[in-house]
Design brief:
heterodimer, A: mainly alpha, five-stranded parallel beta sheet, three-stranded parallel beta sheet, B: mainly alpha
Chain lengths: 551, 335
């Protein structure tokens, strides 16, 4: 990160005044530059999935090694998707370019690049649509000056490169779609563009390799079954030294009550690991107190789904494991961990793609008797829905003061807020396990939340300038509550956030750290038979719980 | 000067002149008074239906509403029934508010970045686009409805009432209709936004200026006929009633200005289905707004769902069996 821009240098670059002239005229001068793009997908990762045109290539080189008939593939790809997705077709036709979305995108706010205005991002594609698919565009293009009148342009290599550059500068966060008077969702358009890229073998490696890993080993990080078990057992040791209680989880237990699936990031890297320990503590508590039988699986060891950032088909191929494993193990229903896009996939796609889940039962919390009506068909419950229900029914013994060192705010992840509406459940949990909680300003939370800047598979290392620019609006709000209320911890229910927001804070607000909601639950939950805790899950001493030396 | 708005502006001028001179000079009354209006209405209807059917023929594979509030989950958590509806009643309410009150636009904010002093991003409520849009759409609607007086005989009382309300300020003679003045003002505001707001200028296409100039042309020609040049209103009604009853006649004494006005309206009608103005129809079909957020409670079916190649548990176990057994993980086949 030594060649990276300093925060001040990045701020100096921000200018919301776009240039003059027609944006279509400067397509050829779009420079794909280091810091702003992700490396090309490795050939072998593309091959694992059997996706087209696997070969080594480099976005910075002139020749992208495209198939000869690439234009035909793009045309056919667009045509198919216009028929398959009403969203795409309607969104291609009805934008009036009112500009309401223009300054809603975190990438626009952080870079000032006018092609990061959601409307222009979509226009990159619409201009070709108008040329190739709209009747008016076709008629107009026959008269002189008509192309300009229609705002149409033909598909060229420069246009393709411009698409690639900017559709990998969209994190599919849907913030623009909240403000659009027609609900035009740029995420949907980006999804289509990325499907087209995959027809040409133009994926980025940060997506393609996790997808390939997930397909083969069950999770994005490629953690093999024995290693996965080792990692969890390592947490078990940590928890035992802290609490004196052994929280060993069960793996692939047939006939368990619940199958638990969470993003593999939680077993792999801090601070997600603390969240993972929170899950282990919670499940141990429920097992000992109420006999609830939760199992993990190494086969379905990934909640996230980078297939979603590749194509609908790839998403389905990766997601299929959840139901398949639940069926094989014969569990009653599935519980899902804290993750953002994972939950958009589960909430809005899974049942449609891989259902019906008629082999599972309607989720019912056996401890409280609550039937999760909102998950009646998909049969998968979000862990904060589950925990909030337990807390509401006073089924958890909690010591809030053990989290007194955490002065919290909460970051709504894009997908759970705008693709689901999970807003108050995590807040309820946080407020019941923490004494200090402050909201960020209203324009930056709930459905208006800002993306971490690294979603939709863009959390690579090589595009750090892009990520930190996109992170600015979120960081700015965090800084605000840090200065005003002394907030020192940013809570979240998203695994990508736990990684991405940590980098964000380190860069923009170094005084603030990131924590998953269930890390806080793990700290506060009083396990039966535990010894007196003096440290939290991060092995930091807790204020007010110091060892009493004189006794 | 920017060719993005010069071309549309010139085009609207030329269209006006074509009709005006066509009638005044070449005497093409029948062409501009009968043939063109009928063709325009035909193009509008056919185009509109074609476009909507085109959208409707595309599948809705997934239920993907944009949720703008708390979901329905646990019974004690208050759901936002409008912005995150889980029933069709909620969806209807959301759509009605969207279509009639432009609810999403109402949320609009303006971001500003304060470099140096505090390095703060701030967001302020930006209401003017919403006001401008509402003023434009509703005044246009009232103007259109008022024009039904030309196509009905006797004029229905609801139209008369609307006219009465529209002219309630009782200013000048003939009395000022608020809607006409407001339409012109709102259109000019929307145009000014496109010209003077740098971001909006940058995203604007000729296709954004053209309908604005066209509507300004229609409004100006209409207002000048009513308030300034005066026209033979009885003759015009004769013509419009003729069109409405499919027995067209060309009255004497109606001048070129009226035919130019009519021609611009006809162009607007014919242009409508091929343009962004189709957001009128499209908003009803926008899947991020017109679907309930109940995908986990009620299964949505994708009409083109197809089977895909997955990596099965058996394949997985075959690959990792030894390691799994060694690690003490349960396996289906011990070998």
């Amino acid at each position: 990160m030594s060649d990276q821009l300093k925060p001040d240098e990045l701020l100096n670059k921000i200018d919301y005044a776009p240039g003059s002239g027609n944006w279509m005229d400067n397509t050829a001068s779009v420079q794909i530059r280091p810091g702003m793009y992700c490396y090309a997908a490795k050939a072998e990762s593309v091959q694992t999935l059997g996706l087209p045109n696997a070969r080594p290539w480099n976005p910075l080189e002139e020749d992208w090694k495209l198939p000869d008939n690439w234009q035909e593939i793009v045309f056919q790809g667009l045509k198919d998707r216009l028929e398959r997705f009403r969203t795409f077709k309607v969104f291609m036709d009805i934008c009036v370019r009112c500009g309401a979305c223009a300054d809603k995108c975190h990438f626009f706010l952080g870079t000032g690049d006018p092609k990061n205005m959601p409307v222009l991002r979509a226009e990159l594609l619409r201009s070709v649509y108008r040329n190739d698919f709209s009747t008016a565009g076709k008629i107009l293009s026959k008269i002189p000056g008509g192309k300009a009148l229609a705002g149409a342009r033909p598909m060229t290599l420069d246009v393709l490169k411009e698409w690639w550059y900017y559709f990998f500068q969209c994190t599919e966060c849907r913030r623009c779609s909240v403000f659009c008077p027609y609900g035009i969702d740029t995420a949907e358009i980006t999804i289509m563009a990325r499907e087209i890229f995959n027809l040409l073998g133009l994926n980025i490696d940060w997506i393609a390799t996790p997808v390939s890993n997930c397909f083969k080993t069950g999770n994005h990080l490629g953690i093999q079954p024995h290693a996965f078990k080792d990692m969890l057992e390592f947490f078990v040791e940590d928890i035992e030294s802290l609490t004196g209680v052994n929280c060993t989880p069960q793996f692939m237990k047939k006939g368990a009550d619940i199958l638990f699936i969470t993003p593999s990031g939680d077993v792999f890297a801090d601070p997600g690991t603390y969240t993972c320990q929170g899950y282990l503590i919670l499940f141990k508590y429920l097992k000992d107190k109420y006999g609830l039988d939760v199992t993990w699986s190494t086969y379905a060891s990934e909640g996230g789904n980078f297939g979603f950032f590749t194509s609908h088909e790839t998403m389905k191929r990766l997601n299929a494991k959840m139901y398949a494993e639940a069926r094989r193990l014969g569990v009653k229903w599935i519980l899902g961990g804290e993750c953002g896009h994972m939950w958009r996939v589960i909430h809005q796609y899974m049942d449609t793609m891989n259902g019906p889940a008629d082999f599972l039962e309607v989720p019912k919390n056996p401890i409280t008797g609550t039937v999760f009506e909102n998950a009646r068909s998909t049969k998968m419950v979000h862990i904060t829905e589950f925990t909030a229900d337990l807390i509401k029914h006073s089924k958890l013994e909690l010591d809030k003061s053990r989290n007194d060192d955490f002065v919290m705010t909460y970051h709504d992840s894009c997908n759970t807020s705008r693709g689901m509406g999970l807003l108050d459940e995590p807040r309820y949990v946080i407020q019941n396990v923490c004494n200090h909680f402050y909201e960020m300003p209203p324009n930056t939370i709930r459905e208006q939340t800002f993306c971490c800047g690294s979603g939709s598979g863009l959390n690579a290392g090589e595009n750090m300038e892009l990520r930190m620019a996109g992170a600015l609006p979120r960081a700015n709000a965090v800084k605000h509550v840090h200065e005003k209320f002394g907030v020192n911890t940013l809570g979240t229910v998203c695994a990508i956030d736990r990684a991405a927001l940590s980098t964000l804070c380190e860069y923009w607000v170094p005084e603030v750290r990131v924590a998953g909601v269930h890390e806080l639950v793990g700290n506060a939950l009083i396990l039966p038979g535990e010894k007196k805790r003096t440290e939290n899950l991060r092995l930091e001493p807790m204020t007010g719980f110091e060892e009493e030396d004189d006794e | 000067m920017n060719q993005k708005y010069l071309i549309p502006l010139t085009t609207v001028f030329l269209l006006f002149l074509v009709a005006y001179t066509g009638v005044e000079g070449a005497g093409l009354h029948r062409f501009f008074g009968i043939v063109i209006p009928y063709l325009a209405v035909l193009a509008f209807l056919a185009g509109f239906v074609y476009k909507v059917l085109g959208w409707a023929s595309s599948a809705v594979p997934f239920r993907i509403p944009t949720t703008c509030g708390q979901q329905k989950s646990l019974p004690w958590i208050k759901q936002n029934c409008i912005d995150n509806p889980d029933t069709s009643t909620g969806v209807c309410l959301r759509m009605v508010l969207e279509i009639f009150l432009f609810r999403s636009l109402f949320r609009n904010t303006k971001a500003a970045f304060n470099r140096n002093e505090s390095n703060k991003l701030s967001y302020s409520w930006e209401i003017f686009l919403w006001i401008g849009a509402l003023a434009f759409h509703y005044s246009f609607l009232v103007v259109i409805l008022r024009h039904f007086r030309f196509f009905t005989s006797p004029v229905p009382s609801c139209i008369k009432f609307l006219e009465y309300m529209d002219g309630i300020v009782q200013l000048g003679l003939p009395g000022l209709f608020i809607s006409g003045a407001l339409l012109l003002a709102a259109t000019l505001f929307l145009l000014a936004r496109r010209i003077f707001d740098a971001k909006v200028t940058y995203i604007s296409q000729a296709a954004d200026y053209f309908p604005l100039f066209l509507i300004i042309g229609i409004a100006v020609s209409g207002l000048s006929m009513r308030y300034f040049t005066k026209v033979d209103i009885v003759g015009i009604k004769e013509l419009t009633m003729g069109l409405a009853t499919f027995s067209p006649v060309i009255p004497k004494g109606v001048g070129g200005l009226f035919y130019a006005h009519l021609f611009l309206v006809s162009i607007l009608f014919a242009y409508f289905p091929a343009s962004k103005l189709m957001h009128l129809g499209g908003i009803f079909l926008s899947p991020t707004r017109n679907m309930a957020n109940n995908t986990r409670a009620k299964r949505h079916v994708n009409p083109w769902n197809y089977d895909v190649k997955t990596h099965t548990y058996e394949e997985y176990e075959d690959h990792f069996r030894e390691k799994m057994i060694e690690a003490g993980l349960p396996v289906d086949k011990e070998e």
